[in-house]
Amino acid sequence: MTDTDFSSQRFFTREFDRHTDVLAATRAACADDMQAMLEAWETAIKAGGKILFFGNGGSAGDAQHLATELAVRYKRDRAPIASLALTTDTSSLTAIPNDYGFDYLFARQIEALGKPGDVAVGISTSGTSANVVAGLRAAQDGGLVATGFAGESGGTMLGLADPLIRVPSTTTARIQEMHLLVGHMLCGALEISLGLLPEDN
Question: If both were cysteines, with which of 33, 65, 122, 187 could 74 make a disulfide (CB 3.0 to 4.6 Å apart)?
Fold first, then answer.
């Protein structure tokens, strides 16, 4: 294929078709795990706990995005919801890998900041990111609720994170799109379940 054979319209249509296919599959596969995740978040916040998000690359962006939606607001002004992304403190992000190794990046922060009853949310499209897995193990050891978002197989996170929202795809972009969609749904549902906002009709 040469450059002149490329059609942006064909590409646009194909990408939308692939997105909608995974969207439908995620809707069918993830409703129960989404409900279980919501219950874990609600229980933690009502008990005075917090939600800790972490991941690498695009998943780090998702961690920061979702933590901000909760701590600031998602739809409308309301009381803040205690949440934190473990991907934003540049001193920790450089000191921990330098002193202990990259695999301990999130585990060390969870040991420092996590409390029993908090929820740890590890995000990894592959489900095999060593530092995310180590973070979830540290969460379990510390009495936190270890949960996560992953791709189709769940990788190493399967059996470690519970609930684990697994997007039925092996394509990183599609998995990330669904992680953010379901994450947004969780933020909106949590605002309502905590009684901070009324349910939209």
Answer: 187
CA-based nearest residue to 47, from 115, 107, 110: 115
**Helix, strand, coil percent content, the chain, rounded in steps of 5:** 55, 10, 30
Give the span between the Cα atoms of 179 and 56, in whole angstroms.
14
- The length of the chain, given as a count of residues: 201
> For residue 200, what pLDDT band results from cuts at 50, 70 and 90?
confident
Residue-wise pLDDT for 40-97, tens only, equals 999 999 999 999 999 999 999 999 999 999 999 999 999 999 999 999 999 999 999 9
Helix, coil or strand: residue 61: helix
The arithmetic mean of pLDDT across residues 94-106, rounded, is 98
Hey, is 193 helix, strand or coil?
Answer: helix
- Give the full edge-to-edge strand order of the sheet including 164-166: 83-85, 51-55, 119-123, 145-150, 164-166
> Which two tokens mark 128?
């095999």
DSSP reduced 3-state for 1? coil
Query: Is-contact 161 19, C-beta < 8 A?
Result: no
